[in-house]
Amino acid sequence: MSQNTIKKGRILVYRVYDIGEEIDLEKAEKLLQQENAARSKFKLKKINQQAVIVSNDPLSVALGNYAYADHDMSFNPEVSAKIWEFGALSITFDFPIPEGTTIDQLRAISDRIQNYDLLDVYARGKARELSLQIKDSMAKTNEWEVNEDYILYYIESFANNYQDASTILAEEDIAALIINEEKDQLAPQIKERIYTSKLQYYKNDLAIIDWNSAFIIEPSGSMDIPDVIEFALNQLLEMRYYDDLLDKKLKDLYSAVELKEMSIFSSRYTDLALEAGQRYIEIAEIVEAVENSLKVIGDLYHSTVFRMASNKFRFSDWQSSIDNKLDNMAELCKLLLDNITSRRSHLLELIIIALISIELIPFVKQLIDYMNR
Fold first, then answer.
1. Which site in 18, 251, 305, 363 is 20 to 30 Å from 216, CA atoms measured?
2. Of residues 31, 33, 30, 55, the one with CA closest to residue 42
3. What are the pLDDT digits (tens) for 107-148?
4. What dihedral do alpha carbons 273, 276, 277, 281 form, nearest 10°?
């Protein structure tokens, strides 16, 4: 039974979408000026130290408040968006946690929010609205059907604050909150697995990061950790998007090669080789831009938070999958070019044989005439 109560905190609910392959943020800012959008530096700091710098600051847009009403529960969360140069857009709902809420009550509130379908409808609508408003700033617009969702519990203070924030793990079922298990008691080994991602900078703060949620205690009120996790979430979506795009492009290219009978005079192989090469360069450059868009400088703790999020989001698996598919596309491009070279060589051989034959015709005619004398 929960004894301690939350004095100040919030629930951050994220929805992340891919809206374009590349966005000119300066142009997007101008397009949104009529909506009072403001560009904000995405520089994360902790105790007067520059912790993390994103190489290209996202465009931050305030979207007002959302009237959340679910039977007997209502909130008025602030809604904001971040538009990223590499084509992602994240929508954030900032739900204030009522003062006096226990962890058990927080679990019940969270369960209601996560099962509230209208939140997804609203977020998707806002993403489309923003995408339309800045479409002239994008090289190419997308509306991928897949999105990322995430929930983050951010606590600044309790009625009785903890000298050591990790003490809460023995007093409250934080693991059940993180995996949204409202009813059943979790086994000790499951809790242990979840708590292996526990991080602390000071004794009075705490961060537990999982693949679909995080629990943060941060008495300073700094939003550095949520910002790092939000960036990682956007990066995850882009990795998934390009992995899916590579699947489709490879499938199309393989199908085109298998189904088309290529004549010796056909330019189809040349076209396919050019397309494969173009796609390889295009996707490889964008993936590299996504990977290089965050530079961690000087702050070991924030680097650790980012690496923990990367591990939970399985960045290495997605990156390996993308690299393998890029290698396959490069190999396909090479095979197509080899085929073109081979066909051209065969054609050249035939031309040479034909020319030799033409040259031999007068000689053969003379030889036949001589033998018939």
1. 18
2. 55
3. 999 999 999 999 999 999 999 999 999 999 998 888 888 999
4. 170
